[in-house]
Amino acid sequence: MEVGLLFRNDITNLEDPRIDPLGMCGTESGDIVTDLYERGYHCSFLLLQQYAQARISSFQAFLVDIRVSFLQWPLFASWPPPLFFSLFLLSLIAWGGHAQLSPTFYATTCPNLATIVRHVMSQTVNNEPRMGASILRLFFHDCFVTGCDASVLLDDVGSSLVGEKTAVANNNSARGFEVIDTIKTQVEASCNGTVSCADILALAARDAVFLLRGQSWTVPLGRRDARTANKSAAESQLPGPDFNLSTLISMFAAKGLSARDMMTVLSGSHSIGQAQCTTFRNRIYHDANIDATFAATRRANFPTTGGNSSLAPLDIQTANQFDNNYFQNLIAQRWLLHSDQELFNNGSQDALVRSYSQNNGAFCL
Ligand code: HEM
């Protein structure tokens, strides 16, 4: 059954624990803290622990703590902060939430959840490695609009629900809905009416990165699925490939994410996956800050008209491997998206890009 249909059925059931119109995310999990601690992130450990003890109900307050932790990071642990931690933080995006998430949320109610998700994702990524990238992007596009509440998965329902799937950034671009459908079907067969699609998407994105040779991380669980979607928010809040640095910084700041610690790190997710010609045509024909040979090679395959949906790998070396080539290629100006090159264009993010380019461990571990 299609995920959207499941959601629509759920709308009538207000007792369903998976449904929460606020779509909240937050955490107090000691397990997450322990996980970070074991990896050596002592400063974050302390701050997360403080957060857990105080049970801060406002997610904005939590982000203040996290920003402090990033400021202190170099004093206590490796710098810069690794991508997996940023993805972990991305998974916490929500606004004004009170929900308490935990990695063990389904330990008794759906003990096979992680195994089911990993199994389907392994098959999927084996068959088509790019799908791992598409699932990660789907997760980002879900979290960036009204929090990680699976609203991106909802289909239109007449005029009463206009979904996010047809927003500019998603239309004929967002992929992987059928993968989440498959996982959801198998999860329902194992533990009916228990697991939210938002949690399934969060787990699937984690597994996608891991299966493409990136790091793994602990996923806090217990998200509630949205009962509605917000297409206009998706139109205005999802970043576009022609955006400049200050616009991108503002868009991430609007989510409580700093440029230095979050946007540049998260954009490293472009280490995997592909882009359609429409998203980079302007750059290969008009941008000055692009390697001439690289641009000429791309122009040979992507003419000024036609072939709008033709694909090119974002990372010209290892499109199916999660690594720091993204940052190295930005420095070499061998990159497709204008928005990415903005991160290394004599601006505030140059130093961080250089740092990650020199140290894959800092980025991925
Ligand atoms: C900084 C602002 C960002 C912009 C402007 C942006 C824009 C884009 C664009 C235009 C594409 C190509 C889509 C297509 O051609 O259909 C793309 C692909 C992708 N994006 Fe982003 N993105 C941004 C941030 C992120 C973040 C934060 C993540 C993950 C956390 C992410 C993950 C991905 C992935 C994995 C792909 C490849 C998807 C696939 O192959 O199906 N992006 N992005």
TrEMBL record:
<feature type="binding site">
    <location>
        <position position="315"/>
    </location>
    <ligand>
        <name>Ca(2+) 2</name>
    </ligand>
</feature>
<dbReference type="GO" id="GO:0046872">
    <property type="term" value="F:metal ion binding"/>
</dbReference>
<protein>
    <recommendedName>
        <fullName>Peroxidase</fullName>
        <ecNumber>1.11.1.7</ecNumber>
    </recommendedName>
</protein>
<dbReference type="GO" id="GO:0005576">
    <property type="term" value="C:extracellular region"/>
</dbReference>
<feature type="active site" description="Proton acceptor">
    <location>
        <position position="141"/>
    </location>
</feature>
<keyword id="KW-0376">Hydrogen peroxide</keyword>
<feature type="binding site">
    <location>
        <position position="147"/>
    </location>
    <ligand>
        <name>Ca(2+) 1</name>
    </ligand>
</feature>
<keyword id="KW-1015">Disulfide bond</keyword>
<feature type="disulfide bond">
    <location>
        <begin position="143"/>
        <end position="148"/>
    </location>
</feature>
<comment type="similarity">
    <text>Belongs to the peroxidase family. Classical plant (class III) peroxidase subfamily.</text>
</comment>
<dbReference type="GO" id="GO:0042744">
    <property type="term" value="P:hydrogen peroxide catabolic process"/>
</dbReference>
<feature type="binding site">
    <location>
        <position position="151"/>
    </location>
    <ligand>
        <name>Ca(2+) 1</name>
    </ligand>
</feature>
<feature type="binding site">
    <location>
        <position position="164"/>
    </location>
    <ligand>
        <name>Ca(2+) 1</name>
    </ligand>
</feature>
<keyword id="KW-0325">Glycoprotein</keyword>
<feature type="disulfide bond">
    <location>
        <begin position="110"/>
        <end position="191"/>
    </location>
</feature>
<feature type="binding site">
    <location>
        <position position="318"/>
    </location>
    <ligand>
        <name>Ca(2+) 2</name>
    </ligand>
</feature>
<keyword id="KW-0964">Secreted</keyword>
<dbReference type="InterPro" id="IPR019794">
    <property type="entry name" value="Peroxidases_AS"/>
</dbReference>
<dbReference type="GO" id="GO:0020037">
    <property type="term" value="F:heme binding"/>
</dbReference>
<dbReference type="InterPro" id="IPR010255">
    <property type="entry name" value="Haem_peroxidase_sf"/>
</dbReference>
<dbReference type="GO" id="GO:0140825">
    <property type="term" value="F:lactoperoxidase activity"/>
</dbReference>
<dbReference type="Pfam" id="PF00141">
    <property type="entry name" value="peroxidase"/>
</dbReference>
<keyword id="KW-0349">Heme</keyword>
<feature type="binding site">
    <location>
        <position position="149"/>
    </location>
    <ligand>
        <name>Ca(2+) 1</name>
    </ligand>
</feature>
<keyword id="KW-0408">Iron</keyword>
<comment type="function">
    <text>Removal of H(2)O(2), oxidation of toxic reductants, biosynthesis and degradation of lignin, suberization, auxin catabolism, response to environmental stresses such as wounding, pathogen attack and oxidative stress.</text>
</comment>
<feature type="binding site">
    <location>
        <position position="323"/>
    </location>
    <ligand>
        <name>Ca(2+) 2</name>
    </ligand>
</feature>
<keyword id="KW-0479">Metal-binding</keyword>
<dbReference type="GO" id="GO:0006979">
    <property type="term" value="P:response to oxidative stress"/>
</dbReference>
<dbReference type="InterPro" id="IPR033905">
    <property type="entry name" value="Secretory_peroxidase"/>
</dbReference>
<dbReference type="InterPro" id="IPR000823">
    <property type="entry name" value="Peroxidase_pln"/>
</dbReference>
<feature type="binding site" description="axial binding residue">
    <location>
        <position position="270"/>
    </location>
    <ligand>
        <name>heme b</name>
    </ligand>
</feature>
<keyword id="KW-0106">Calcium</keyword>
<keyword id="KW-0560">Oxidoreductase</keyword>
<feature type="domain" description="Plant heme peroxidase family profile">
    <location>
        <begin position="100"/>
        <end position="365"/>
    </location>
</feature>
<feature type="binding site">
    <location>
        <position position="239"/>
    </location>
    <ligand>
        <name>substrate</name>
    </ligand>
</feature>
<feature type="site" description="Transition state stabilizer">
    <location>
        <position position="137"/>
    </location>
</feature>
<keyword id="KW-0575">Peroxidase</keyword>
<dbReference type="InterPro" id="IPR002016">
    <property type="entry name" value="Haem_peroxidase"/>
</dbReference>
<feature type="binding site">
    <location>
        <position position="142"/>
    </location>
    <ligand>
        <name>Ca(2+) 1</name>
    </ligand>
</feature>
<feature type="binding site">
    <location>
        <position position="145"/>
    </location>
    <ligand>
        <name>Ca(2+) 1</name>
    </ligand>
</feature>
